[in-house]
Amino acid sequence: MELMQNESAPYVPTEKIQLLTQQISKVIRGKQAQVERVITCLLAGGHILMEDNPGTGKTVLARTLAQAIAGHYQGAHVAFKRVQFTPDLLPMDLIGTHIFDDRNNEFIFKKGPLFCNILLADEINRASPKVQSALLECMAEHQITVGDTTYPLEQLFFTIATQNPIEMEGTYPLPAAQLDRFFMKIYFGYVDEQTEMDIYRNYLNIAHNLETLEQVLSLEDILQLQQSAREVFIHEEIIRAVSNIVRDTRSHNDIQLGASTRSGIAFIRCLQAYALVKGRSFVIEDDVQEIAFDVLDHRLLYRNKEGRQQALRSVIRKEAERLARLKIHQ
Q1: Which of 77, 81, 164, 217 has CB 3.0 to 4.6 Å from 113, enough for a Cys bridge?
Q2: Where in the chain is the domain with CATH 3.40.50.300?
Q3: 3-state secondary structure 247-313
Q4: What are 167-210's pLDDT values in tens digits?
Q5: What residue stretches are annotated with the ChlI/MoxR AAA lid domain (predicted)?
Q6: Of the candidates 283, 181, 267, 266, which has an alpha carbon nearest to the alpha carbon of residue 231?
Q7: CATH 1.10.8.80 region(s) of the chain?
Q8: Is 232-326 a CATH 1.10.8.80 domain?
């Protein structure tokens, strides 16, 4: 079975994506895979959750990406907001509240930080579940309802959330409904020894790069990239592989709650965006194995922690082997 290359395949805006990754690499060292996945979620029109111990660079990556898009100066076309989640945070601190206007003798709604293009929800699992749920409607429905009024969000709304491991003191596990709104959950991890030594030697330059990072893409560029991602070709057999993986998670002995249909849709959108990040106008078999775990793991409930990674990886491996036998792109 061969994939016939279409002469009318969508234009791959490789230069724009490279500009973005090059800007980020001025600050973030040794994290190419994580950077690619963050950009993948941005282009797929979803949201991303990053988890790891404090001090590994999660917040810096989020700030760097936003700054490369939103720009360093006020008045940039893309609005970036950062919210530090704490136990005393209230839903109105995110959504906004009504205040009384003495001049017009009426209440007016003052919008909160959720009304932006890129939101950094820092240490999201340190806030109470009630505050966490305030994000749910805007992430799922692209709108915010206050009283009887519904406010649509901007055309570009991208949430980058960070969290520390839930075993740490003073944290609240995110509810399953909210976890499902994140297209990917990635683990940042520590850099290798050589990269860490490089960071120590050049930390002043790296900090300076973050302060002076330039805006390289406009709002229109990001929206065009998202449209290009939706036009990336995905073969019928790869769509079938996504369906098989999603369905197999529901019948695996070590998985208590499998993936939903919405998970499969997010998987396909991430595959298309990931192919674009890699400079292709079509999805290949290897893309499935590359990002499947990041897309699905946080959506599943496992019967035991010991078999967690093995359960999902065995499902993914089974479909990867099937696709390899088909030789779609050979």
Answers
A1: 81
A2: 14-225
A3: HHHCCCCCEEECCCHHHHHHHHHHHHHHHHHCCCCECCHHHHHHHHHHHHHHHCEECCCCCHHHHHH
A4: 666 778 888 878 888 999 998 878 888 888 988 888 888 777 77
A5: 248-308
A6: 283
A7: 232-326
A8: yes
